[in-house]
Design brief:
The protein has 173 residues and is mainly alpha-helical. The protein has one domain: Ferritin, core subunit, four-helix bundle (Ferritin, Up-down Bundle). It contains five helices and no strands. The chain is elongated and about 50 Å long. 31% of the residues are buried.
Length: 173
């Protein structure tokens, strides 16, 4: 099913939705780990408030992981046990940028997942994902604010996953 693009809801199947939700779950695990670590190692008086906020985000990401796991199980799939890699740095600003980039990808992916659920007639599932999406957008705002930036319009940005897929395809040809 590699031919189906992330924006093509006409080719979505339950099996493909399970795969996509497992990617989301791996991203939630990544976020939990990153927020736990970053909240404890981030240094500097200017980052104390954001460190407390990152701790709070870790708990919210755990709730997201539990919800996504339930949705995967509901569809008949098995939740993944692997996290996406977590980037680290000695610089607080780098860690915040890593989180911001991950949240941008997460928001973009959950928006797509909502459309995919609706295309399959899974409206209650879409509502669960909308609740997660609301919190993920709040995380985006928190991180952009901490970095002194505007929240990016992720609908106009290509995901890092899509960029990597394009590089992989080019390398194969």
């Amino acid at each position: 099913m590699a031919a189906a693009t992330t924006t093509d809801t006409t080719k979505i199947t339950r099996a493909l939705l399970i795969d996509k939700l497992n990617e989301d779950l791996a991203r939630e695990y990544q976020a939990i780990i990153a927020y736990v670590v970053y909240s404890q190692v981030i240094k500097g008086a200017e980052y104390m408030a954001i460190a407390q906020e990152l701790e709070k985000h870790a708990g919210e990401e755990l709730e997201h992981a539990l919800t996504v796991s339930k949705l995967i199980d509901y569809l008949g799939g098995s939740p993944t046990v692997s996290a996406k890699p977590v980037k680290t740095s000695d610089k607080a600003e780098d860690m915040l940028r890593f989180d911001r980039d991950n949240e941008n990808d997460t928001v973009r992916n959950y928006r797509e997942r909502v459309r995919q659920c609706e295309a399959l007639g899974e409206y209650a599932m879409a509502e669960h994902l909308r609740e997660i999406l609301k919190q993920e957008q709040e995380h985006q705002i928190d991180l952009a604010t901490a970095l002194g930036e505007d929240v990016p319009d992720v609908s106009k940005m290509k995901s890092r996953d899509e960029g990597q897929q394009a590089k992989d395809q080019a390398r194969l040809h």
